[in-house]
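Continuing the batch. This is chain 6 of the set; chains 1 through 5 are on the previous pages. Same settings as before, nothing changed between runs. Recording input and output for traceability.
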Amino acid sequence: MTDQNAQVLAGRRRVVSVDPWSIGAVVIAGLVMLPILVVVGMALFPAENVWPHLISTTLPRYVMNTGVLMVCVAALAAAMGTGAAWLVTMYRFPGARWLEWLLLLPLAIPAYVGAYALVDFLEYAGPVQTLLRQIFGWSSARDYWFPEIRSRGAAILVLSVSLYPYVYLLTRAALREQSGGTYEVARALGAGPFGRFRRVGLPLARPAIAAGCAIVMMETVNDFGVVEFFAVQTLTTGIFSVWLEGGNAGGAAQISSVILVMILFLMGMEKVSRRRMRFFNPPRHSRPITKIELTGLQGLLAMLFCAVPFALGFALPTAVIGYHAADATSGWLAPGLLRALGHTLSAGGIAAFVTVTAALFLVYGVRLSGKQLPRLLLPVTTLGYAAPGAVLAVGLLIPMAAADNALAAFLERFTEDRVGLLMTGSAFAVIYAYCVRFFAIAQGAADSAFGRVTPSLPMAARSLGRSARGTLVEVYLPLIRGSIGTALLLVFVDCVKELPATLLLRPFGFNTLATRVYEKASLENINDASPAALLVIGVGLVAVLLLARANR
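Output for chain 6:
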């Protein structure tokens, strides 16, 4: 009887004994997945089923426009990014050293800012058409033909020159890791420049190109500012229309579920296409790539091919916005600009800190835990980045508003004071959406940083009596502080540029730089929008320069 009691007590101790790292990892993963699960639930069980109406009216147009944008933007971005990466990696030509880093700068320009700048530059009253009328003596638009600026084609161009750096950055890294001997053998066998690119470089860089294109497609689906400004009806604009104009949250969730299905299908197709392929890095001491000198016409063409994406994606928007910002003296002194700057810095800073801290806890907890559930949840949390900001807003606002009302009623019952809405009435919902949206960036940086630490170091710390927390603080954090800083910077900059989630979740009177730019530019007031746009560009430019320095 005594032995049985001892076994029962031991079993209870095992049950009571919990691992806080595993529990914390599961809780964090649940909070990250909550908005997506809510969207799926609302789409499956809507208060009002609008599927028949959507399918018979607007949904086919939304799906077609979104699909065309995704395919065309990915194809154009892949062509620019892959071609530029191949040229700056394999050849020397005039300006190559500068262009290698200048090609990254369009990352600092939000796509919607590029759209406003392009329209201002090419519209009827803009400098291009004004100069043409002066040169040829035309008096009105009926005297000549000019391409339609606010069109789907223009939206494709703007998104492509804004997003191609994702493909360029990954492809250049993949090409630089390859052995120069591979290309020398192909050259000795008679392969010309195009043959070496098509038969050697392109297959070896295919995983990086596919990953870059996947990011481009996700960002294209997430975009709202460009497509709304160019009057292109996509699934994201459909969410705004059905929810804000039609007042149907269930219909917005159903459109959001279509986006999630498209993103999951895209991710699945990319993995299936590489299922039977294997790619291996060359030995550490492999021969570096010897660049080939391009002179004359070839060098000039290579320089122009690399310069055009940079000019359209960074130089032109910065010049147009800078010109208007220099002329908008009253805009710089507007009190709304300072408030928007403060909201942007505070919300983005808090979201970056919370996101990176949660990612560190999650990754470290999964590594410590021997349990299967946290390990299964780790890759699932990356879906937040694939979900557009508008989708996350739908999944957050409805349950958060219900919880807010219940909490306010509960507190008012005891305090007899009107509490108000604590979460949706403040920036809490916006910060939460930022954390979910960009959690994958912080998680990826944390996971790779932990993986680079020699296992013997934390093992030695544990053998010397350090706890799991002490090992994290005294061993891991000093070694991975560079990666942590990079993750904080990247998440912060993405929060600064995020528009759809901020528009839907911000409380009344809460403006960020992104929403201020959108509001002013949507009213065709580019002068008042330019100071805020220039501040957004400045924040992004600092981040890109630091990123380029880290990738030398």
